[in-house]
């Protein structure tokens, strides 16, 4: 969970603005303002402030980074371009860069979309939900939000939406779009759970997507669109799964009670978020 400042001096350590990779496997975005992000490092617990070009503008504790962001906000007049924003959540073992093509697509269509990062292989669904909840609780000048998610990202969003307090009293959750999300658990994860290396690679969240463990999450209470990958055949991309599938998640595993729209896209799991048919399905749903 995101940790507030610990009372240390807000002066903070000296910083040389330096380019970064934007945060990948061990970084969680816990604060967002118009493309500027405060991130928390899962391993060290320290924070850093990145600008829209992923350049590090400050580092240290959370309070110091927030104070520096306030300075940049006044200096550069930072604000969200719209009161409704789209938050993009990547899948297991991925990072925000995997959602950048979709982020650009939505941006070109005039939407305010932001790909977020979370340490998918290091934290539980609950802990990743904590970090995302912290980000939403501290959004400024945002009145509504939609979530567009790939795979595990959809379960993180469902974990978040299961909580009815905090940000939901001031921000309307408008849409949830899940691509290749194992809403009923993933048989593939159950098969792989017998391999010790899978526990190391996939981390705690990888164990939570097994069918018998995922049922604790309630169905989303907002308009929901499901996009599944498959071949529209009995064997799908992976004959071992015994039904149509995207190679990792079966079509039936993606479906959820109360969904308003379902779309089958002929594509594998790892690239479903980049497929033109997925993009069109997203546009049709949000418009």
List the helices and strands and how they pair.
Layout: E1 18-19, E2 27-33, E3 36-41, E4 47-50, E5 55-60, H1 62-76, E6 84-89, H2 100-108, E7 113-116, H3 125-137, E8 144-150, H4 152-161, E9 172-179, H5 187-192, H6 196-208, H7 211-214, E10 224-229, H8 251-254, E11 261-265, H9 276-286
Parallel strand pairs: 6-7, 6-8, 8-9, 9-10, 10-11
Antiparallel strand pairs: 1-5, 2-3, 3-4, 4-5
Structural class: alpha/beta
User: What is the oligomeric state here?
Assistant: single chain
CATH architecture of the largest domain: 3-Layer(aba) Sandwich
Order of helices and strands: EEEEEHEHEHEHEHHHEHEH
What's the helical proportion of residues?
A: 25-40%
Biggest β-sheet: strands ordered side by side in the sheet: 7-6-8-9-10-11
What's the alpha carbon Rg, rounded to whole Å? 19 Å
* Main beta sheet strand tally, sense and closure: 6 strands, parallel
CATH topology of the largest domain: Rossmann fold
By CATH, the superfamily of the largest domain comes out as Alpha/Beta hydrolase fold, catalytic domain
Strand fraction: 15-25%
Would you state the CATH class of the largest domain?
Alpha Beta
Task: Specify the number of helices.
Answer: 9
Averaging pLDDT over every residue, what do you get? 91
Shape: globular
Unreliable residue runs = 1-9
Number of strands: 11
Cα end-to-end separation: 34 Å
How many independent structural domains?
2
Verbal overview:
It is a single chain. This protein has 287 residues and is α/β, with parallel strands linked by helices. The chain folds into 2 domains: 18-76; 84-286, Rossmann fold (3-Layer(aba) Sandwich). The chain contains 9 helices and 11 strands. The chain has helices at residues 62-76, 100-108, 125-137, 152-161, 187-192, 196-208, 211-214, 251-254, 276-286; strands at residues 18-19, 27-33, 36-41, 47-50, 55-60, 84-89, 113-116, 144-150, 172-179, 224-229, 261-265. The strands form 2 sheets. Strands 7-6-8-9-10-11 form a 6-stranded parallel β-sheet, with helices on both faces. A 5-stranded antiparallel β-sheet has the order 1-5-4-3-2. A hairpin with a 4-residue loop joins strand 4 and strand 5 (55-60). Helix 3 crosses helix 4 (152-161). The longest helix has 15 residues, at 62-76. The radius of gyration is 19 Å and the shape is globular.
């Amino acid at each position: 969970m995101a940790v507030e400042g610990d009372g240390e001096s807000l002066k903070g350590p000296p910083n040389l603005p330096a380019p970064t990779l934007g945060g990948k496997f061990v970084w969680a975005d816990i604060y967002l303002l118009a493309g500027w992000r405060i991130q928390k490092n899962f391993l060290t617990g320290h924070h850093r402030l990145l600008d829209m070009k992923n350049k590090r503008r400050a580092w240290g504790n959370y309070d110091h980074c927030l104070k520096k962001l306030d300075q940049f906000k006044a200096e550069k007049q930072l604000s969200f371009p719209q009161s409704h924003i789209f938050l993009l959540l990547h899948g297991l073992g991925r990072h925000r860069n995997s959602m950048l093509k979709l982020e650009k697509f939505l941006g070109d269509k005039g939407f305010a979309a932001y790909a977020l990062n979370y340490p998918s292989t290091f934290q539980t669904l609950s802990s990743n939900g904590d970090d995302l909840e912290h980000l939403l609780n501290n959004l400024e000048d945002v009145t509504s939000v939609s979530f567009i998610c790939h795979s595990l990202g959809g379960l993180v969003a469902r974990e978040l939406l299961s909580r009815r307090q905090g940000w939901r009293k001031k921000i309307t959750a408008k849409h949830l779009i899940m691509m290749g999300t194992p809403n009923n658990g993933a048989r593939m994860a159950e098969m792989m759970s017998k391999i010790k290396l899978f526990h190391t690679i996939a981390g705690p969240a990888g164990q939570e997507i097994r069918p018998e463990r995922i049922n604790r999450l309630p169905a989303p209470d907002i308009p929901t669109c499901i996009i599944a990958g498959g071949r529209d055949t009995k064997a799908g991309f992976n004959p071992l799964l015994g039904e149509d599938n995207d190679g990792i998640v079966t079509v039936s595993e993606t479906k959820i009670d109360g969904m308003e729209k379902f779309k089958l896209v002929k594509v594998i799991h790892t690239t479903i978020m980049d497929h033109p048919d997925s993009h069109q399905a997203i546009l049709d749903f949000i418009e």
